[in-house]
Amino acid sequence: MDKLMRNKKAIILFIAPALIMFTAVLFIPVCKAIYYSLCNYKINYHPKYIGIKNYVMLLTKDKTMKIAFRNSMFFMIFSIVTQLIFGLILAALLTNIKKGRNFFKNIYYLPCVLSSAALGLLWMFVFMPRLGINQMLATMGFFNGDCTLGPQWLFSTEGYIILPIWVISFVALWQYVGQSMMLYMAQISGISSDIYEASYIDGCSKRQSFFYITLPLIKPMVATAMSLNAIGSLKFFDLIYNMIPEGFLSHKADVIATHLYTQAFKFSKLGYGSAIGVILLVLCLVMTVIINKFVKTESYDM
Amino acid sequence: MTNTMTISKEKKQAKIVSTLIYVFLILLAIIYIVPLLWVLVTSLKNDSTLMLSPWAMPAKLEWSNYEFAWTKGHLGTAMLNSLIVCGSTLVISMIFGSMAAFAIAKLRWKLSKLTMYYFLIGMMIPIHTILIPLFVQFSGWGMSNTLMGIIIPYITFSLPITIYIMVGFFEGIPNELFEAACIDGCSVYKMFGTVAIPLAKTGFMVTGLMSFVSNWNELLVAMVFISKEAKKTLPVSLTKFVGPYHTNYCQMFAAIMIAIIPTIIAYVAFANQIVEGLTAGAVKG
């Protein structure tokens, strides 16, 4: 048996396809991206090494990058906080009701499996000046019945965090809160009912049992959900790209991913785009480490 | 006497609370359903009357909107492309992934732990970072505008999670089973095919589902790598068809419907399995 499992040929045969593919399509390109990010590289030209000039430019001079970074950070914090709160509330409510749990759960989860490209377009129409929400409010008598007088949900550019960014944040919450909810529910349903019964005998109210039993016991899952949300919102592309038509807000609603897309594939600045990509990679790694360090505690036996 | 009164009072309170919870849940469900219904209803309307009576039900069902989006918007071709891409990605990533997972979980070699960590790092790398090098490389190989050019990155990004989940499932299979197979004269390949794979069916379902859903909805890579109409996948064709410069709203709504209806049908049919499967995958990831 042992000899069979140490069969070198079999090991190589089993691991090789995945390993080769992974190295060639993921690992080497990451190294290349780091190299390109140190180059002046335009499409159809050879990359020319220029040191850290791209990074200096990005971090000090590029105004759009500043906006994109701010928006991305906002998305990340917003989604971490709101998904945590709403995900927990929904999970707590759904585990406590008797009828229709599956029905509600499946409805709230539905947008997670739908294409965010399609949902982005859908919500773009909902927030258009002449359709959707404004039209609905106008028929109800707001804005003197003229829907174009309503708020410019996706086209207003005032404020530190502009209105479209808020709107898109809420759409993202709408789309992905089901996932956080399910993660928490999976963890809650794993808690043995003995613990709750014991607490009720000790005179615990439902609210107390939530704060003193449920919350501490699902802490490891909070870390998982938070890092999923953080990385997901840093990588955010589809919703923004589809909700804000290109060039409509002169890049005021850009995030890191859309900035990378425009720089690399609209202006063909491949070196500069790679630098943005590397910064995004670093951000993702840093966030994962931070969240796992500060939130994840020892997991309890249940 | 007072005792029974407090109990009935408590019961009454509990009832109020549960009614409030249901009201909240139903209101929330409406926020989830109404936008989709709105798109469905509008997609069947006539564009010229849309602005006059925005909230009326369609007088006559305009199936021509769907026909237009399907043919002129190239959504038919796009759906076929998406099926080819996601199907082949699914199959290949499951084969490669489960093979590697078996080697890591059950075969004995020194570097297996290290290899596992190597794959795990891949889960943290955003696809955006390697988009540019891959784009350059693939155009050099003449693979831009081919389905192969997006299948390869899709497989690669499905591999880490597939391997991670499958390792978990293979490790759960007791070694005694493999020993028994060994005594019966099984080779290591046969063990993989006849013992490991059949016992990890749930793992295949979970990983398959995750890879299919995420690739079916993927926009960025497909948009960068493919500009030819005949090769575009569903999210790309939809994004290009629906836009601020297209003026017929009803046709655009029909296009959105076409893009999400297959997923919705599959979801309605297998909602519980899909939700459980994806959650199980996310928990482990």
Extended strand count of chain A: 2
Gyration radius from CA atoms of chain A, angstroms = 24 Å
Low-confidence stretches of chain B: none
Helicity of chain A, in percent?
A: over 70%
State the secondary-structure class of chain A. mainly alpha
| Largest sheet, strands/sense/barrel of chain A | 2 strands, antiparallel
Q: Report the mean per-residue pLDDT of chain A as an integer.
A: 87
Alpha plus pi helix count of chain A: 14
Tally of separate helices of chain B? 13
Radius of gyration of chain B: 25 Å
Distance from first to last alpha carbon of chain A: 35 Å
Tell me which protein chains meet in the greatest interface and how many residues each side has. A-B, 95 and 95 residues
Strand content of chain A: under 5%
The rough form of chain B would be described as: flat
**Global structural class of chain B:** mainly alpha
Description of the structure:
The complex is a heterodimer of chains A (about 300) and B (about 280). Chain A contains 14 helices and two strands; from the N terminus they run H-H-E-E-H-H-H-H-H-H-H-H-H-H-H-H. With about 300 residues, chain A is mainly alpha-helical. Chain A has a single domain (about 55-295), classed as MetI-like fold (Orthogonal Bundle), CATH 1.10.3720. Chain A has a two-stranded antiparallel ribbon with strand order 1-2. In chain B, helix 3 crosses helix 13 (about 250-285) and helix 5 packs across helix 7 (about 145-170). Classes of the chains: A mainly alpha (about 300), B mainly alpha (about 280).
